[in-house]
Amino acid sequence: MKVLITGGTGLIGSSVVREALAEGYEVRVLKRSTSDLRNLEGLDIEFVDGDLLDPDSLDRALKGCRKLYQIAAIYRHWHPKGGDFIRRTNIEGTRNILGCALKYDLEKVIYTSSISSVGFYPDRLSTEDDFPEEKDCLHAPYRDSKFRSEKIAFEYTDKMPITIVNPASPIGVRDYIPTPTGRTILDFLNGKMFAYVDVGMNLIDVEDLAKGYILADKKGKTGERYILGNHNTFLKDFFEEIAKLTGLKAPSIKIPKPVIRMVAEVNEFIADITKIPPMVSIEQAVHTHYNEFVDCSKAVNELGLPQSDIRIAIHKAVKYYLDTGAVLPKQEAMIDLKYPM
């Protein structure tokens, strides 16, 4: 059976490609002509050039496929082309790919939303029944784009067998860009993290996350959403786990959240001029006002989502950055990487 995987060159997508191949699927990957293919080297897959904003290319990519894993999106909190470019790509791209998918009577569509499309509360864990309010998405182009895109996906649930997955923050191998979470790890390894913010997140090994996609394909119900996550942790505790595994010192200074917002405003203003990504974006500063703590039991109980020790995923990520030369030599000399016991 042939499946189309969009976004297959990225962190999540390249892991899903591997799981799909292990499942026995023939895999076709949608890529741009400029895509970096390092994550897929040596794999027996078919490539087709295309773009979410080019419906004709999506039509060609879907021809002959029986399933669609829609993963492609801009996963950034800031983009040199601006927040409207993030929104346009993710929102119009969703409308385009699902519109094309309608023509092919697909057996299954796995649509990737985000944990950012979940509503968060100070007094309890969030579930699949929780959604943000539109005011929660102000100054947050990525969150806004994923929230609106997911609404579009829900509109298609009575037209095709579509299951929605909401990945938490993935960590692990092949995060070369890196993603916002990967950037946090890499900056820590390179000695750029001198302080922390009192904020919480949910982490999952990207390889467990990829298994969740296959499980959603097999067991996911049409019209349902599943939070694919694992470990709720505060940023301070996350840094301390990395420190234990590497021998590096974890930051001990807590930055007040209003200061982070001011720093982000300045950083993003400069980034908009230089087109160099800011150390902290405004959307990331907005995220510090809530903890992304979720209840993943629906995906665990209904799909069988793995819940591996998150320290192993941290170890994989650190080793990947060491092996690929992403860590500065003087910092690498200070690291004594240990396997979690």
> Helical percent range?
40-55%
Run of helices and strands: EHEEHEHEHEEHEEHEEHEHHHHH
For the record, what is the CATH homologous superfamily label of the domain at 2-174 and 204-230 and 293-307?
Answer: NAD(P)-binding Rossmann-like Domain
CATH topology of the domain at 2-174 and 204-230 and 293-307: Rossmann fold
Could you give the distance between the termini?
A: 41 Å
Q: Looking at the structure, what is the overall shape? A: globular
Fold and architecture overview:
By secondary structure, the protein is α/β, with parallel strands linked by helices. It has a domain at 2-174 and 204-230 and 293-307: Rossmann fold, CATH 3.40.50. It has helices spanning 11-22, 55-62, 83-101, 141-155, 180-189, 206-219, 235-246, 257-274, 282-287, 297-303, 310-323, 329-332; strands at 2-6, 26-31, 46-49, 67-70, 108-112, 162-167, 169-171, 195-196, 200-205, 225-228, 231-234, 253-254. Helix 4 (141-155) links the parallel strand 5 (108-112) and strand 6. The longest helix is centred in the N-terminal third of the chain and has 19 residues, at 83-101. The chain is globular. The N and C termini lie far apart (41 Å).
